[in-house]
Specification:
Helix content is about 45%, strand content about 10%. The chain has about 260 residues and is mainly alpha-helical. α2 runs antiparallel to α3, α2 packs parallel to α5 and α4 packs across α7.
Amino acid sequence: VRYADDTLIWSDSYSEIGKAANSLEEAASEMGVDLNFLKSKGITLLAPSGMPAEFSAQSAVEFLGFSISQRHLGIRRSSVRGIREHISFLIYKNLLQEPLRGNFPASRMLGRIDEDYPVLIYQLRRYLYGNLSEATLRRYLYRQTPLLRFKGLMSFYPMVDDDELLQELDGWMLSSTLRAIKRRGQLWQLYFPGTLPTPHGRSRAQLLQLRDNPQPGFLIDLRFPSFLRISKLLRRASATYGASAVANPRSQSYYAPRI
């Protein structure tokens, strides 16, 4: 596989990889360019961590935005860091930035809901899901998956199946939000002691399924977004229609993780 000047050669045969490397070097010589051996790890075995190997081995190889192991396709570590940084920024900007500056518009906290919390949920959802609502995503999971040009961050990773990583990201995102809610509540109490609105005081389980009816006939869906949930839908869509049919290339400049 090749992207720009990065090339990765796969095979279950050492001799075939040796032949391919020789061919690559010959082609580079004909073009008048050099191979950068200092940046190359050479030939390595892809083996589970801790397993004895005849020579240099690694449990996963990173290429573009992916981490590829024998069992799973994951997200590259530097990309995960960029994703975490962006989500941390959204949480801070919506819940803590102004309170820490001493700016606390009382009107945003006097109703049934802390009005900055839905803004955060919608921004997190848009970042992960693109233009899908939580209700639509869940409906597609329980019914036949439609042919769609998905948007959002996870449309860059339609075949990622490292559920352990995705669950870890889900847990981290929820815990980070809970910590920010707690700190926001403490700052609010300094200015206006009294009862705090939703989502303050809610547990992890309650935040995962939070919805509110501020008035009859009007439902606010604040169910917490999930890396794992959107990944399951994208995997199913990729298996049905092909990975190239999943991502919307027009969304890349907005949703690409900053690394």
